[in-house]
Amino acid sequence: MFYQFKGNEEIAHSYIICRFGQCLLIDPSFDYEKIIEKLGPNQLQGILLTHAHHDHVALIHMFKAPIYIHEFDASLLFEDQYNGFSKLNPRQYKRKDLNLVMIQDDTKIPLADKFVQVIHTPGHTKGSVSFLYENYLFTGDTLFKESVGRHDLYSGNLFELKKSVLKIVDSIHPNTTIYPGHDDASTIRNERKMNPFYIKWKKQGKI
C-alpha cells in the first residue's frame, strides 16, 4: 500500500508505505485521524523524517514507533528558534517521549522483506535525507518538481544543496517517481530534462 496525505505550502505532505501488513510513516505533519484510518489493522514499524522542520514533524509524538532521523538533524527537533515552532504554533512533543533512532547515509530501514535506503541530502538542513523505496523517492524539501528547496534557513547550505541535487538526479534510475514534501510529484527523468537548477548546476561541472 502507498498513500499520500496532501499538504500545501505551509503543511508538508505525509506518506504511508506498507508491505505485508507492516508500514512506515514519512513526515507526519497533520491529520492524525486520517493517518490512523489509513493504517487500519497494519502495524506501524517506524516514522521516517526527511528533516526536522515543524511542518514535517508535528505529529511524531502521537504514534508508538521508533522515529528515524539523521544524526545531524536530531537536535533541531528541539531547537524551536530554528525549527519553525513558535508561541502561536507550539511544539507538542518532548525528548523523553520519543524513541529516536539515528540514521546516516546508506542506512537500511527494514520493511517486511525489503528495506528503505537512506540517502543523506544536506542543503536544506544539515541532516536532510531522502528515502528510496523500490521506485519511490521521498525527497522532503531537497528536490521538488522542477525546483529545489531553500538553503537560507538554519543549517542550510547552497554548496551542499547543489551536491545533493546532482547526487539524486544523476544516480537514481530515471523511472523513479519523486514524492517531495510539498507540491506535485515528478520523476527523475523529468528533472533531468526540466529542472532549471539541476541543468544549471550540471553545466557548471563537478563541485
List keywords for this structure.
Metallo-beta-lactamase, Chain A; six-stranded mixed beta sheet; globular
Describe the structure concisely for a colleague:
The protein has 207 residues and is an alpha/beta fold. The chain has helices spanning 32-39, 54-57, 80-83, 158-171, 188-194, 196-203; strands at residues 2-5, 14-19, 22-26, 43-48, 67-70, 100-103, 108-111, 114-120, 129-133, 136-140, 143-144, 147-148, 177-180, 186-187. The protein has a six-stranded mixed beta sheet with strand order 1-2-3-4-5-6, with helices on one face. A six-stranded mixed beta sheet has the order 7-8-9-10-13-14.
Which overall shape is indicated by the principal axes computed on the Cα atoms?
globular
Low-confidence stretches: none
- Give the strand tally: 14
Intertermini distance: 38 Å
Describe, in plain words, how this protein is organized in 3D:
Pfam families: Lactamase_B (PF00753). GO terms for molecular function: hydrolase activity; metal ion binding. Keywords: Hydrolase, Metal-binding, Zinc. The chain has 207 residues and is of the alpha/beta class. It has a single domain, classed as Ribonuclease Z/Hydroxyacylglutathione hydrolase-like (Metallo-beta-lactamase, Chain A, 4-Layer Sandwich). It contains 6 helices and 14 strands. It has a 6-stranded mixed sheet with strand order 1-2-3-4-5-6, covered by helices on one side. Strands 7-8-9-10-13-14 form a 6-stranded mixed sheet. Helix 4 crosses helix 6. The radius of gyration is 16 Å and the shape is globular. The model has no long low-confidence stretch (mean pLDDT 96).
